[in-house]
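WARN  no MSA supplied for this record, continuing single-sequence
INFO  ligand: beta-D-fructofuranose
INFO  echoing inputs
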Amino acid sequence: MTASTAMTTDSFRPALHYAARDTWLNDPNGLIHHGGLYHLYYQNNPLGNVWGNMSWGHASSPDLLNWTEHPVAIACDEDEEIFSGSIVFDRNNTSGLGTNETAPLVAIYTSAFKEGSAHHGVQAQSLASSLDGGYTWTKYANNPVLNRGSSEFRDPKVFRYEGAAGSYWVMVAVEATDFQVVLYKSENLRDWELLSTFGPANATGGIWECPDLFPLPLDGDPENLKWVLIVNLNPGGPNGGSAGQYFVGDFDGATFTPATMVTEGVQDPAHLGEYQWLDWGRDYYAAVSFSDAPDNRRLMIGWMNNWQYANDIPTAPWRSPMSLAREISLQTVDGKLRLAQHVAEDLAALSGLSPEFELAETNISDQTLVLEGAAGSVQHITLTFTPGTAEEFGLVVRSDGTLGTRIGIHPAEGRIFIDRRDSGLSEFHESFASIDSAPILPIDNAYELSVYVDHCSVEVFAQGGLVTMTELIFPSITSTDVALYAVGGTASVGDLNLTRWA
Ligand code: FRU
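INFO  complex generated
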C-alpha cells in the first residue's frame, strides 16, 4: 500500500481502507474528484487521536484504494474549529476567489466559533479557497458568509443546481437539534438566500447532521431523475448510535418533496425499522458523496465508527478508518424506491489479484464447516445461500476455529445480522459487543452476499447492495479462519469466490 500505510505496524491498521497515519479522524469532508485525483478531506485532530482541535485533514488517491496523506488542509485557530463541509470547483469563478488564469476550489465549512472570538457560541458557514488543486487553502477575509446566530447550524453540502428553476449553487445544511435540513441558494457562494426547510421527518432519535442532496436516475433511466436526501443522525440509528437515513423524492430547485416519508414530525419509535437506512451496521456515519466524480457516478464514503464508542476503539497511534468508497444507484423494488450500493472499484483487479479460492455447490447441515485453504485477514468473499431446513445459516470470518464474527441470515424472521459479540476485543466500551440486524428478503429464493473483511472491519453488501451492514471488529491476528455454518437443518452454498490480500 502507500507509504503512509506502511509506517506503523499495529495489527488493526486497515489494508484496503484509509486511516490517518497517526491522528484522529471523523467525518469525510469536501469529497471531490479534481485534477485526476480523488480528494478526501476529513475531520481531523492534527495533535492527537481523540476528537478535538478540529481541522480538515487531507488525503488523495488515483483509484480509491491507494491513499496518500497530505499536510492539514484547513487548520483550526484561536477563533474557530473547522467543522464539516464540502468543496466545489468554481469553474466560472462566480465567487471571485480565483484569478484570471485559475478557477478556484472553494471549501464551504462550518466555523464552530470558540470562546474569545467575536461570534462565540455560534456555528456559521465560512469559505476557504485553493488555487493549487486543493493542497493549500486561504480562508476568506469576510467569514462567516452565512450566520443565523444559531449554535447548531452546520455541515454545509454545496452543489451546482442546473434545472428548470435556473442555474445556481444550492447549500443543504442542518439545524441539528431541530431535526431540520435547511436549503439555501447563492449566485456567488458568498451571499445566501433561504429556499426552504425539510423536517422533522422519519428518524429523529438523535440530532441531524451531515446532509446531502443529489439526483439519481431511477432504474438507470436518465430521463427519470429522482432526488435523494441523506440525513445522518446521532444517536437514533436502527441498531443504536450513529447512522444515516435517506429519503427519495423530488427537488424543484427550491423545495425537497419526499415520496418515502413514513413519519411527519418527530419519530414514532414503532416505525424505526420502516425508515430507509444507508447502512444498518453500527459503523457507517456522516456519509456524503463526491462532487464531480467521473462519468456522473455517485460515490460516497462514510466514517467507519460510531459516536457511542468512537474515542475508545483500541487502535493507536491513529483512530478511525473510512469506509470503502461506494457507488450508489436507485432502483424500484416491489414498488418501493430503494438505494443499492456496491464498492466503487474492483479492488482485487486494481491490486492485480484474482479469486484464489472457489467452492463448488456445497450443502451444509447443522454444522460449521471451516474452509480449508481459505484463511486470511483481508478478504473479499462473494457467495449465495439457498435456504433448506436450517433456521439460521451464514458465514464466520476472522474466526479462531470456534469464535469469530458471524454474518448470518434468519430466513423465517427475514433478518440478516452481524454478530460481533465474539469478534475479538470488545471490552473497551460496554456498548460495543452486539448483534445487529437488518430486514432482508430472498430474491429467487436465495441470499447473495459480498463481504469485505479488513484488519478491523467487515462490510456486507447483500442482495445486490440493497441491504448493507458495516461494522468494526478487533480480532486477534491469528483469527483468520473462514467458515460456513447452518443451525437446525440444511442450507446450500453456491458461487463462492474468495480473494485475499493478507
Ligand atoms: C458529525 C459531526 C458534525 C460536525 C463534526 C464535528 O460527526 O458532529 O455535525 O460538523 O462532526 O467534528
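The chain has two domains: 24-343, 353-500.
INFO  checksum written, moving to next record
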